[in-house]
Amino acid sequence: MGYREIYEGWQADPERFWLDAAQAVDWTRAPEKALKDDAAPFYEWFADAELNACWNCVDRHVEAGRGEQLAIIHDSPITRSTRGITYAELQARVASLAGALRAKGVAKGDRVVIYMPMVPEALEAMLACARLGAIHSVVFGGFAAQELAVRIDDCTPKAIIAASCGIEPGRVVQYKPLLDRAIELASHKPDFCVILQREQEVAKLIEGRDVAWHSFQYGVEPAECVPVAGNHPLYILYTSGTTGQPKGVVRHTGGYMVALAWSMPNIYAIGAGDVFWTASDVGWVVGHSYICYGPLLAGATTVVFEGKPVGTPDAGTFWRVIQNHRVKSFFTAPTAIRAVRREDPEGALIGDYNLRSLQAVFLAGERADPDTVTWVEEKLGVPVLDHWWQTETGWAIAANPFGLEHLPVKKGSPSVPMPGYKVKVLDEGGHEVAPGTLGAIAIELPLPPGNLPGLWNAEERFRKAYLTTFPGHYETGDAGYVDEDGYLYIMARTDDVINVAGHRLSTGAMEEVLASHPAVAECAVVGVTDSLKGQTPLGFLCLKKGAQTSPEQVTKDVVELVRDRIGPVAAFKSAVVVERLPKTRSGKILRATMAKIAGGEDYKAPATIDDPAILDEIGAVLRMAGFPAAAG
Ligand code: COA
Ligand code: AMP
Fold first, then answer.
1. Ligand 1 pocket, residue 309 CB under 6 Å
2. pLDDT at position 632, please?
3. Looking at the chain, which terminus has fewer C-beta neighbours within 10 angstroms, N or C?
4. Domain with CATH 3.30.300.30 in the chain
């Protein structure tokens, strides 16, 4: 059966489709019903069933005779080391860690925050929580103490599992002082912290609160898998919204396992014994789904890569990893490819490696510009497949279902909706627009398995942020169009979220930091088009009258403040001081117009603008600061 038949089959009988897909998962109580819809517009999947995610990702493969196969390959050019962990070893390590957590009181439903770099222990920590039915919340290592504190207060973890450090090119990022500071800042205090000491930085442990990864496991009884209900949360993953308060996306166990199990063969063409590599970070949704749970669920080998596309040591790293570990499908963000291309425009380094194992490259996280897609396709000679999704959805909304049927590629489009998703392009009134017309992209409810059932402890926010604008639909926050063949094109966000190097960031959160500077009267942060990172943030500051400081000092201060409060991942490096901000007559700041001016793009002053002369002022300031600044 091809894509069309499968998609139509799902449309004809969604309940049957997902119950069939559920057979790829081991249940301790099999589902009789797929969808629970009695509390619409809130839906849940496989609520009547019981399973354990860790069992599905680890133990069952050992039982099936795959114990000696590698489950994880850690390839770390940054520490110049490589190691492999078999499924049998992974089972033993995870059961031991889970046993130690249990011995210290962690049980089903408790939250555990994980703050770790790209080491296999990060996956082991996630799986150990899953084994106990504890709910993990992984926080990306590039976030600062304040961001970690906000997440600690929101999900109130019983324990935090962290490493002593992460390693970035040229510097060791000490995690322990960040963790200590975050716990100090947070109102909620965890009962204990587990610290993985890395040889690059041995952290000082706090007596009575911190335990060391290895010693706290000594002599404990390994834990068995605890069955949980299909609608039991597996994890909470925080993502950027329009304000400084991140959204805690909840993921239920049953639907997630079913959706990922469907996606591995049908989208990525990966099965047991294959090697799958996603070059992302466990701190992002891509890392949760396709570094940890997806490939392990399929019985594949997952590559955990601790390095960068360039500089560790060169732009040939990706190709070396693919060659050395015989990677079959490779998934990364377009920005990573752009970084490689910038260093090695001819792809000369590719010729140094044997890439015969590689069947396809998958891209997501930001719009895949046709130029980048063409470059990889030409250099590697394999299909390059864009797919579109979000932290909220957990897996692809639209993709080219390569494993099922390799559909014709249209560059600039992530292709077609996956089964489970009825995608619509709507105008402001919620009416579907004609093909080729730009609109807001919404998905008809219910969302398929794997998607968020809600936000952690924030039902009203969930309703307001996603379900209110277009009743009966989930609002994606993305705008785009669909063509005559049903291919989707994702062009921009409809909110103040920006995408920097494939990382989703909130300009609202940055504005809150800027506004906290005593000399700042008013501010705005916009995402300016960037040839490497897609977008980079730029701050506009209006100073208070009589502020006792210079514009140079304030811009320097706010750059430091954002790094300190949000973290280096915000990549906030520039700000300019302006007299006034352009606004509509109703007082709304014209961020999109400012972004265009800063990016040197053509723009038109909106009809609703209060005083068009401000745009010229802004253009002049930006030109002085070295931005291209278009004339309008
Ligand atoms: N811990 C601590 N700091 C981190 C970090 C981590 N896990 N990840 C990134 N940072 C820091 C970087 O060191 C950098 O710091 P600097 O300002 O001191 O240089 C800053 O955060 C910004 O990082 P980034 O935006 O990633 O820029 P970069 O210059 O380090 O690298 C790319 C640029 C394109 C190579 C890199 O962003 C990349 O590989 N992107 C792929 C994105 C991706 O996988 N996204 C996931 C969605 S699929
Ligand atoms: P995140 O939740 O961090 O995965 O970010 C999700 C957002 O990234 C989406 O809402 C889009 O704005 C953007 N995005 C992700 N993948 C794509 C893609 N393939 N094409 C265009 N935009 C994408």
1. yes
2. 61
3. N
4. 501-624
Q: Check whether 321 has a pLDDT greater than 80.
A: yes
Query: Picking from 106-110, 156-160, 565-569, 625-629, which range would have the lowest pLDDT averaged per residue?
Result: 625-629
CA distance 284 to 493: 19
Q: Using the mean position of ligand 2's atoms as its centre, give its distance from the Cα of residue 593 in Å.
A: 22
Confidence class for position 243, pLDDT limits 50, 70, 90: confident
Residue type at 391? T
User: Can you tell me the distance from the alpha carbon of 50 to that of 432, in angstroms, rounded to the nearest whole number?
Assistant: 39
**Hey, which of 237, 369, 388, 397 would you mutate to test ligand 2's pocket, going by the most ligand atoms within 8 Å of its Cβ?**
388
pLDDT on residue 627: 85
Q: Are strands 159-163 and 192-196 parallel, antiparallel or unpaired?
A: parallel
**How many CA atoms within 13 Å lie on the side-chain side of 605?**
18
Q: Tokens in use for 270?
A: 């990966």
> With 80 as the cut, is the pLDDT of residue 33 above it?
yes
Considering the entire predicted model, what is its pTM? 0.96
Torsion over CA: 344, 348, 350, 353 (sign):
negative
Residue nearest to atom 18 of ligand 1 (CA): 568
Gap between the Cα atoms of 35 and 45, Å rounded = 5
* Whole-number Å distance between alpha carbons of 116 and 587: 42
Q: Which pLDDT belongs to residue 244? A: 82
Q: Which of 89, 71, 149, 194 is nearest to 564 (CA)?
A: 149
Helices first, then strands: H and E counts in the chain: 19, 31
* Cβ contacts of 445 within 8 Å, gap of 6 or more: 40, 41, 43, 467, 472, 473, 474
In sequence order, what are the residues at sequence separation of 6 or more whose Cβ sits closer than 8 angstroms to the Cβ of residue 496?
242, 506, 507, 508, 591
Q: What is the pLDDT of residue 631?
A: 61
Q: Which CATH superfamily is domain 501-624 in?
A: ANL, C-terminal domain (3.30.300.30)
| pLDDT, mean of residues 596-623 | 92
Centre of ligand 1 from the C-alpha of residue 306, in Å: 12
pLDDT at 241 over 90: no
Tell me the two tokens of residue 217. 């496991």
CATH class name, domain 86-226? alpha beta
Which residues of the chain are in CATH 3.40.50.980 domains?
86-226
Tell me which H or E stretch contains 375.
Answer: helix 370-380
> Ligand 1 centre from 600 Cα, in Å?
25
Q: Decide whether any atom of ligand 2 lies within 6 Å of the 366 Cβ.
A: yes
Q: What is the pLDDT of residue 232?
A: 98
Give the orientation angle of helix 145-155 with respect to helix 175-185, to 10 degrees.
Answer: 50
DSSP 8-state code for residue 624: H
Q: Is the pLDDT of residue 628 over 90?
A: no
Instruction: Give 569 Cα–ligand 1 centroid separation in angstroms.
Output: 6
Q: Would you say 222 and 214 are in contact if contact means Cβ atoms under 8 Å apart? A: no
Average pLDDT over residues 529-550: 95
Span of 173-182, 448-457, 604-613 with lowest mean pLDDT:
604-613
